[in-house]
Structure formats: structure tokens, C-alpha cells
Amino acid sequence: HTLWPDSCRYVSKAAAKTQMEFEYDGPSMKTEVPGPRSKELTKQLGEMQNVGAINFFCNYEESRGNYLVDVDGNRMLDYRHLLHPYWLSAFVNRPALGIMPPENFPEKLSESLLSVAPSGMSRVQTMACGSCSNENAYKAMFIWYRNKERGHNIPSDEDMSSCMINQSPGCPDLSILSFMGGFHGRTMGCLATTHSKAIHKLDVPSFDWPIAPFPKLKYPLEEFKRENAQEEARCLEEVEDLIVQWRQKGRPVAGIVIEPIQAEGGDNHATPDFFKKLRNIARKHGSAFHVDEVQTGGGATGKFWAHEHWGMDDPADIVSFSKKMLTGGFYHKDELQAYRIFNTWMGDPSKNLFLAEVLNVIRRENLLEEVTRSGKTLLQGLYQLQDQYPNMLSSARGQGTFCAIDIRDDATRNSIILKARDKGVLLGGCGERSIRFRPALVFKEYHVHMFLNVFSDVLAEHN
Amino acid sequence: HTLWPDSCRYVSKAAAKTQMEFEYDGPSMKTEVPGPRSKELTKQLGEMQNVGAINFFCNYEESRGNYLVDVDGNRMLDYRHLLHPYWLSAFVNRPALGIMPPENFPEKLSESLLSVAPSGMSRVQTMACGSCSNENAYKAMFIWYRNKERGHNIPSDEDMSSCMINQSPGCPDLSILSFMGGFHGRTMGCLATTHSKAIHKLDVPSFDWPIAPFPKLKYPLEEFKRENAQEEARCLEEVEDLIVQWRQKGRPVAGIVIEPIQAEGGDNHATPDFFKKLRNIARKHGSAFHVDEVQTGGGATGKFWAHEHWGMDDPADIVSFSKKMLTGGFYHKDELQAYRIFNTWMGDPSKNLFLAEVLNVIRRENLLEEVTRSGKTLLQGLYQLQDQYPNMLSSARGQGTFCAIDIRDDATRNSIILKARDKGVLLGGCGERSIRFRPALVFKEYHVHMFLNVFSDVLAEHN
């Protein structure tokens, strides 16, 4: 925890003085820029991210007033302070990660995000939020797809001129295939793939992209294997039909995006077999496969990534994340890398420091095992209550503590949520009539029992 | 500065213990939820933002383990921890502002963002980044426009069902008019209005939205008044033509978006007269007027908002910001408010605390006057160098320290930037062959002289 005392001391000392006391008296150059240390760090970071836009690595502790100091000790008068009106904010706050990352950035990135990279992925791009993560993941898929179509990555003059006025071929008529009930964010690209609630989409212009049905399975999954397999086959067939139709329409499917469990849409599960076959369909038709783990990533399903439950070596081309990961971003395969994925902040490095801490605690306290244990107890409790109140409850389901249960109707659901809150238990809804359970990773079995008692009381009052 | 020692002490103390030491032994309810204090704070915040999604205000200092404590002292077992895998991250880090803001949020919002609200605007929506700010501002304009078309804000059944599959009327064919050379971000909605560099847009599907020419003026503006007025009139005429054309196409212009100075596009200025007339055109055709101050806001032009140079009482319907403001977001008129503008984080409240500090320093040290003074010296220096090197330099221009100058060609520009860096001065380019100056607000006149000496040496070497 040495991080904290240090940065705090710096801040409070700094805050007590005015900026002028800190000011250097002029530039001072020791090496060419980027110097050897910056070059070494750029090489390190290059193993994890695209580094095409990086000028040099910055020593934010030594930088002050109007001067930036780089990791080779060069002190430069800064005439392009794009971000900070005032040193306080610059040095304790948001460096422009894409251009001048701090010295410890590669190290922190490997301790945090890369230490939990999904199978087959060694590269990660951080972003400020979940929507930006998905927007940029889509852009990476479009760019990858167009390069594949061209056979190289050099755009034509027509590409370059037509894109400036939003026309094809520069802005191509490509599409992302998404699923009814999915939620991938609220910015306009993401929103075109979001289909959980009308209210998210209403009045916002959209794209003509294909939307496939997500399997509507019966729970518990193991009790309805045959019917569920039929339903999944129906949806997969529809996916292939849509890919063919949209190719014929001149809007080829550059990528498929899906959640391992549709969260906002009502905690809809599908089987590993479904996801394996979907992955194969993407491969067969040359579409990228994007698994959106913004809701499911970070351990709540009992594995760090929900897609690990599928048991595949090569589960995806892109995996996006946010929320529990504290920073947004996406992992991607080497070939989906694009220098052109860029913005000013590219996330916030302080979040990586937090995340490294969080991951340490998850490992030290075996929280994923804890989640699996608590989740099992929770789900068993829900099964019991569902047997006890068959008119009120149905379809208990879950992975780890990422659980949900359906309530008779929307009104009953809302009344149950309010009654539980009056008894000191905070629950949330999802889908049309589900209650979802999203406890923290430190939720222990005795918390589960405490909850089940309250929930049971509330249900008894409703019966 | 009491903020810092306190929050630091909290963090380091917390970090030294395990989470279990903090855990409460069960829920404890004191009032209904939301209780009187939450209701009072919701009312206060309602003056500044839409509060439709807020459940209660949270006391993050008292919340620990699996328990959330609200500002009325109710302690609730939290079964919907959407954001935090572990208390450390939750309490020192990112509350879900849209649902459970911290107690001091209304106060901090009025001390920070609302204390510098543009003329005619008393409401603000925070967002995590510049792109999200613009995306959500566009959505607010689309929703406002559709409500105006409907005559009320109740969607039809057809609206609700068609939007789920990305079709009109639910997802209407509305457009945003933007300007060639503009830059408004890189997510897909923003990107459809960005036209500064092809490389930003290439390979990403876009919308068929109208793009007007931005005036190409001669500098210094006061020496070419007549020609500049003609050029501005030409562009305004084109704007009206496009609005009419797109209405006829069935893609009405819901909003016009423009930067007060086109920054990425090459520091292109226009006169107050141009912006006044453009504002009137927007009003005449029923389009919202969105001023994007992501680059220009925060004081660099010598006024807090660049659009204040226009001298209008009612300059805009929406003003978006980010960068120097430390948080993203947008100010808007009452009628452009929408409950449906929402995401998980809605920005990061720690940024408001920083911003309040920054604003105090700006006021205490009269930094806007400083900027005006330094900017005048800088621009005069650039005029002199331009007279001295007429083959190399032209079109020196600026407001405050937000200045730029054109270089003979792209190669010379890049060589000048590198040579200046070797002498310890960091410069940046914009547009096709401009160098832009973006010093911090604390850039004093002696920094300007230091810079002009280095710049003069570099130019002498190039001549």
C-alpha cells in the first residue's frame, strides 16, 4: 500500500503552496526525445498496446508549473497542455495516456488488466467507460474487416475522400449482428446493438443492422436439455440466415456481439454448446466475435470471465469490460489492433492501480471460490422458495452469485423490491419481471442466509 | 484543502485492514427509503439535473462490506452492487451517480460546474468523457425534436415497437448538421459530425447527415473585414440550403453542432456576427444549437467560455465540455432535459472536487486576465515573426493564449516542432500545416518571451 501515503503526501504538500514556488527556471535537455528510457518503456508497452501515438513517457512527479519532465530527465516548456488548466489536476489526475503515459504504466497494466487476460489474448486497450469500450471495439472490427476485404491496410484515394463526407466506400455499409434482449451501451453505435428496453432507443436515429433472437430457455437448464437444444438450434439458424441476408443487402456483418448472460435483458442464459456453435458461425462467415463482459466480467459468475464456463481455447476475438474492472476497455487478438483506436484520455491510469489492489484481494482471499460457494447456496435457496411459492416464483437461474428469478408480474416484483428495502435488503430488477442478484464478491454464505430469511418473509407477506 | 488529508487518512487506514473488520452485523432501518435527508438532497439536485433515476443519497464513508448506508442512517444489505467487487473501490472510487449519489454531490456541483454555467443555462449533465458528452447531447436534441414533432412526450405503440428493431418512426431519420473541419469525438454518433482528418473516419459506417462549409477567413480578421463577411455569408447560405434539402429528404436537422474555434481542424476562427446569424438560422428552422466547447472551454481564450466573445444573451441550447473541465458533460436549457440521458457512472464525482479547486485558483489568481495579457504578447510576437519570415509563416491568429500560426508546408512544420522540442519547448500541430499554442492558464508573459526566443532561433535555423 505504499502507493497511497506517497501520492497523498505529494498532494497535500502541493496544495499548501502556490504553483509558482514549484516552477523551474527554464527548459533543460539531457537526451534526444524520446530518450533511451522512453524508448525502452515504449517497447515494453508495445507488447500490450498500440504505441504509435506515444511521444515519450512522462515523469509526472517531477513535472510542475509549465514544465513537463520526461523519464529521461528532459525538462520541457509545455506549449500544448491540452488537458490541465493547473498543475494540481495534471499531476494527481489525468495524463493523456495515448501520448504521454506515466513511467509505471506498462508495469501497472501487466499487474492489473493483463494478469487476468482471457485465453488467447495478450493485448488490451483501456477506455473511460463501457459504452466507449464497445464503440471502439466495433470500430476495431470494422477496420479489421475492411483491411481483410482490401487485402492490405492501405486505403484508396476514394476511401479517403468519401469518408470525409460520411459516404461509402470510406464509410462502408458494414453491420454488427446483435441479439434481441442484448444491452451494449447507449452511445449511438452501441445503441444500434442494444435491444433490451424501448426507452433506451426511442427517438435516436439508428443503423439498419441485423438482430437475431437470443434463445429463450427453460430453467433449470439441465432439466430441459432437449427443448433447450432445439431452441438454441433455431436461433443459430436465424443467425446464419441474417448473415447471408445482410451480405446480399450490401451490409456485410463485420462482427457479432453477445453477452455470456444477457443481463439488462433479464438474465437470459444459453449453454456452452450455443456459444461454441455461434463462435464457429462467426469464423465460417468471416465475422469477428465480440464477447461483451461489461456486466459479467470480474468474478461474479465464479470464474473471472463468464465465457470461461464455455471451456474454449479460442473463445473470442474481442472481449470488452468495464464496471467491476473499474476501468473500461477491451482485450483483443493481435490482428484486431488498430492505431486509429484513440482518444484523449484512453481511460484513467489510477483505475489500474485500484484494479491491481482488487485483484490481489480476490486472489489472497480466494474470492472466486467464495463466490462459487455462496452462489450455490443462494441458488439452492431460490429453488426451495420457488417450490414453496410456485404461483409467485419461477425460473431461478444463475452462475456463481450472478443469479435471478422471475416474479409473477411486474407489479408484484416492484412491491417485493420495495418491501425488501424496508427490511434493509437492496434488490434490483432486470428484464420484464425478473429480480436479479448482484452481491459483491465478498458476499459470504451467512449473508446469503440473512438474505434468504428476509426474502422468505417478504414472500410470505405477498402470498 | 481539508478534502485531501481526510480522504487519504481514510484510504490508508482502510487499506491496512481486511474488509471483514469493517462489516456490520445486519441491516438497520431508521426511516422509510428515501428518507427525509435523501428527499431534501434530491430536491436540491433536481434544480441542477434530472433526478428521475435516483433511489437515495449514499453515505459512502459509513458504507462498508456488503452494506450501503444512506444519508438518513439506514443500513442496507446490498444485493445489487453493480460496480464494486470490493469495498476499497466502492468507497474511495466510483459511486453510480445516476442512482445513488453521495451527500455532497449537489453542493459540489454548484460550487464547480454550475458556478461557471454559460448564460441562460442552469442545468448540467456530467459524463465520463468528451465523446460521451457529445453523444448524449445529440440524443437530448433528437428526443427534444421528436417531442416537438409529436406535440407531447408520449410515444406511440408504433414508436415503441419499431425502435426495438432500429426502424423509424421509433428510431427516426433525423440528422445533425455539422461543419467541414469540425471535430466532435470518435464514437459513432460524434464521428458522423467529425470532419477534420480522414483517418478518424475511415472504415467506420456513418449517417447521411448534412455537412456545411466552415468559413475560410483571412487573418488578421480586422484587416479583411469585407472579404471575410462575404465568405461567412456564403457559408450561412449553404447552411440554410442544407437544412431545407435534408428536410425534403425526410431527414430533418434536429440540431446544429459547431466549435467556437475549430481546433483539431486547424484553429479556424469565425466572427461573432457569423455565430449570431447561425444561431438565428437554427432558431428559424427549429433546430437546436449545440456549441461544442470541449477544446475551447475553461479559460484559454481569455473568457471562461469561448462563446462569451460573441456577446449574446442566449448563445446556445446546449454547451458541451470536457478536457480542461476535468469531467465531461453538457449544460442545457430546461426544455432539452431528458430522463432518458443516463448511464452507469455519469462521470466521476471526484472530478468535481478537483474542478472546484481549479476554479478557486483561476479566480484567486485572476488567471483569465493573465491569459488575456499573455495571449496579447504571444500574438504580437507571432505577428512580428510573421513579418520577419513572410515565406515561412502566415495567418497568425488567436483568442487569449488559444493561438496558432500557419507554416509553409507540412514538412517544415514537423521539422520546426522537432527542433523546438530539442531546445526544450513542446509544440503541437493542428490542421494541415498549422502549429497551435495551448499553454496552461498559468503561462505568464515571461514564459511567452522564453518561448518566442526559442521559436525565433528555430526559425532562423530554417530560413
UniProtKB/TrEMBL annotation, chains A, B:
TM region(s), chain numbering: none
Cofactors named for this entry: pyridoxal 5'-phosphate
Listed InterPro entries: 4NH2But_aminotransferase_euk (IPR004631), Aminotrans_3 (IPR005814), Aminotrans_3_PPA_site (IPR049704), PyrdxlP-dep_Trfase (IPR015424), PyrdxlP-dep_Trfase_major (IPR015421), PyrdxlP-dep_Trfase_small (IPR015422)
Record's catalysed reaction(s): 4-aminobutanoate + 2-oxoglutarate = succinate semialdehyde + L-glutamate; (S)-3-amino-2-methylpropanoate + 2-oxoglutarate = 2-methyl-3-oxopropanoate + L-glutamate
GO-annotated molecular function: (S)-3-amino-2-methylpropionate transaminase activity; 4-aminobutyrate:2-oxoglutarate transaminase activity; pyridoxal phosphate binding
GO terms, biological process: gamma-aminobutyric acid catabolic process
EC numbers on record: 2.6.1.19, 2.6.1.22
Pfam family, one: Aminotran_3
One GO term describing the cellular component: mitochondrion
Keywords: Aminotransferase, Neurotransmitter degradation, Pyridoxal phosphate, Transferase
UniProt record similarity statement: Belongs to the class-III pyridoxal-phosphate-dependent aminotransferase family.
Function: Catalyzes the conversion of gamma-aminobutyrate and L-beta-aminoisobutyrate to succinate semialdehyde and methylmalonate semialdehyde, respectively. Can also convert delta-aminovalerate and beta-alanine.
Subunit and interaction comment: Homodimer; disulfide-linked.
The protein, known as: 4-aminobutyrate aminotransferase, mitochondrial
Organism: Salmo trutta
